Amino acid sequence: MIKLTINGEQHELDIPDNMPLLWAIRDIVGMKGTKFGCGIGQCGACTVHMDGVATRSCSTPVSAVQGEITTIEAMADDPVGQKVQQAWLDLGVAQCGYCQGGQIMNATALLKKTPAPETGEIVDAMEGNLCRCGTYNRILAAIERAADQKEANS
Amino acid sequence: MSRSDNLMLANVSRRGLLKGLAGGSALMLAARWDLGLANEKAQFGAGAMPGGWVDNPNVFINIGSDGLVTIVNNRAEMGQGIRTSLVMVAADELGADWDQVRVQQADANQEKYGNQNTDGSRSMRHWYDPMRRAAAAARLMLEQAAADEWDVPVHEVRAEVHKVVHPATGREAGFGELAKAARELDVPGRDALVLKSDSELRFIGKESGLINGELKSAHPKAIDGEDIVSGKAIFGADIDLEDTLYAVVARPPVYGAKVKSVDDSDALKVSGVKKVIRIEGTGQPAAFSPLGGVAVVATNTWAAMEGRRALKIDWDNGPAGDNASYTTEAYRQSLEKAAQSPGKVVRQKGDAEAALKEADQRVSATYYMPHMAQSPMEPPVAVVRIRGGKAEAWAPVQNPRATREGIAGLLEMDLENVTVHQTLLGGGFGRKSKPDFVTEAAHVAKEFEGQPIKLQWSREDDIQHAYFHAVSVDHLEAGLDADGKATSWRHRTLSPSIASLFAPDPKHKGEFELGMGFNTMPFSIPAIRLENPPAPAHVRIGWFRSVYNLPHAWAIQSFAHEMSVAAGKDHRDYVLDLLGSDREVHNLTVGDGWNYGEDPDLYPIDVARMRRVIERATEEAGWGRETGKGRGLGLAFHHSFVSYTAIVFDVEVDDDGELTIHRADIAFDCGPQANPERIRSQIEGACVMGIGIALQSEVTFKDGVAQQDNFDSYLIPRMPDAPEVVRVHLIDNPDDAMGGVGEPGLPPVAPALCNAIHAATGKRIRRLPVGDQLRG
């Protein structure tokens, strides 16, 4: 049995050790916000937090999970996640939206670690998250906006 | 005529057509509206599309007695924002409070909803008018209901935001209060409708959102925005039905190959694997049918993938013919060789051959653009359940009609027994115009009566079995006189045709392919000769955002720059001269009978509009300014999907060949703008996608097998590849007919970027992608 804590809830799952966390979350637990994009950690659509660290769930076997998993569904309850989500809405970042959950997870992890990142730090941190619609300029602007608001409110 | 005068003409002669429903559900009108009324030329535009258009308010708009307005969106949402924009158009005309508006996605039903094939940048230009009319009719019905209730003439009442008022007595009633009575009324005739004047509009055409770095009022917000940022938006793979089984398919690596034998003994040992099924492909041409292969069905996606890994399959390449020897480098050379000989002449003016011989100077170049995969972030995926002689599908498809027909054809069912529910699309870009992946799911589902099958493509499947963007070679020659002025232009274009997907390979581009910026090249040159030598197809060729506009714009816009360099002239001045005087070019006069399906009288190729976008983009970019060593500006422009785009890049290339894109200035003219904010986002996104086409993206083949299989080998743009700044300059042009938005931003990007690279470095790029050509 594999034990996972996802968004504060404990799950005991009868799944093989080598099953990627992504499929455990999507097919077994049934939470659909975390997306499949490439399966090899190249696109970031599957990004979750593992004890707060942005992690590619598609290439993390469940046996390698250590600590608590947080997914996009929990960002509305996260003070930093909320600001990131709001900035995304304010700037109309999303086009198709498929990658944006992963983008938001990665951006939120960045801002938790680096509350006021330089532009270059944002670009470096977000390089692993693909968006085929090409929304990068708005993603960058939204992260800067979320960072500003975070400072203003703290 | 004032609006209230016109309202008195409201005709109430259609009594009895409506079938009222209890509660808040939508009404259905049995009879189709008379298409002839507002569509004088049914051979063009929306009227010429299968299923045409519908503007019956009872099909698209429902108002509940609680005041909630539900508007049906009949087009695929794939990131262009149509669920917001089209609903916004209707809500504005209706007078609805945006906070009380909901969207309902239409199932596949073109008899009811009109054409639903979301393709060709058509959604807004074909549906803006019908949706406004539907909403205006609904508004008039609400006004009539209020007038009846208050026993006053209808011209004394008027709809305001979500209510109808009678100013003379101060009475008012909310849309919800009036909904039941309004539903009982006849739908007014089109001649009774008066659309709101521009000054009465609250949403349509209003700038909002992020405008070149500054945030304006962001109302109304994207309808799916909150669901997207919270992970609640439902894409194809997110459909969650009880007892679902999961499937993946091993497909023949070579187009047309078949399974010779399969050993599934190890696959069946994988925990969770239920069954292994052979899928017969339909061979070539494949059209929208599955490629065939072996499906592994399991209790979860991972088990299915593990099972597939354990299959041992021998493929028979015999049926694939010479596809099995298709190799990119050899093919490129064969096209370049063919480009040296004359081909089928598709447009001729004057004697270009003679003029070339007499020219003071000749310019010649050959350009190459490779195969590419659309690769939307959501790989193809579908859920299909078959039970009791009926099939039900949930899928992210651009063409719900073809999806329905594909399933019905496979299962030999009547169309009425096939239901297709449209989910959000995690990107489309033309890939999801082809519903092969849904038919594939139906193949599996027919083995599991009553049980939903979710068939998931991996990224490897997506890249290796795309409907590839056509590889292309374009060879151009121009003759210049002693002043550098063009006297002749000869262009040979070679690409496999999309027609090869549906019929024996014609080896020549079809009319709609040539009409994408090849025949329609607008330069005013005394002698022109356009030729199309043959090019065979060896893989599935399909639409990719902007389609053949990509190679045509790439070649023509690069070559025009080369001509300006040869002439020693400023590029902008040179192309404005090439364009010639402001005039309207009728498509038939340049050998194009297609014109994106639009009426040439409404949609000529307007040289003045082309000139305007060029002037705007270059002015905004500071054209002509001193840029310093290693830095330069590059321009390109293109007419496609009846819209006009010009782009200027400001780039820098350092001594190591490292490229930095400082800025993009894009001028865009699509005529009237329904939702400028989403237009900007489409143009920004096209800019980034185009940078990938220029710099990175390529699928190559060896012995018929795609050599790239995931995002570590098939490269698409990442955040560092985006320009530091993207500025979109929308041309204020409410007077021309509405043009497309989703695609026309893309074609000029690659040539503008390569022209900028030339300006910065003197290095000419003629083969895409740029890759490491700037190094060393």
TrEMBL record, chain A:
Pfam families: Fer2 (PF00111), Fer2_2 (PF01799). The keyword Iron-sulfur applies. Signal peptide: none annotated. Residues 1-75 form the 2Fe-2S ferredoxin-type domain. The keyword Iron applies. Keywords: 2Fe-2S, Iron, Iron-sulfur, Metal-binding, Oxidoreductase. Coiled coil: none annotated. InterPro entries: 2Fe-2S-bd, 2Fe-2S-bd_dom_sf, 2Fe-2S_ferredoxin-like_sf, 2Fe-2S_ferredoxin-type, 2Fe2S_fd_BS, Beta-grasp_dom_sf, Diverse_Oxidoreductases. PANTHER family: BLR6218 PROTEIN, OXIDOREDUCTASE WITH IRON-SULFUR SUBUNIT. This is Oxidoreductase.
Automatic annotation (TrEMBL), chain B:
Residues 230-319 form the Aldehyde oxidase/xanthine dehydrogenase a/b hammerhead domain. The lineage of its organism: Bacteria, Pseudomonadati, Pseudomonadota, Gammaproteobacteria, Pseudomonadales. It comes from Marinobacter zhanjiangensis. PROSITE patterns: TAT. Signal peptide: none annotated. This is Aldehyde dehydrogenase.
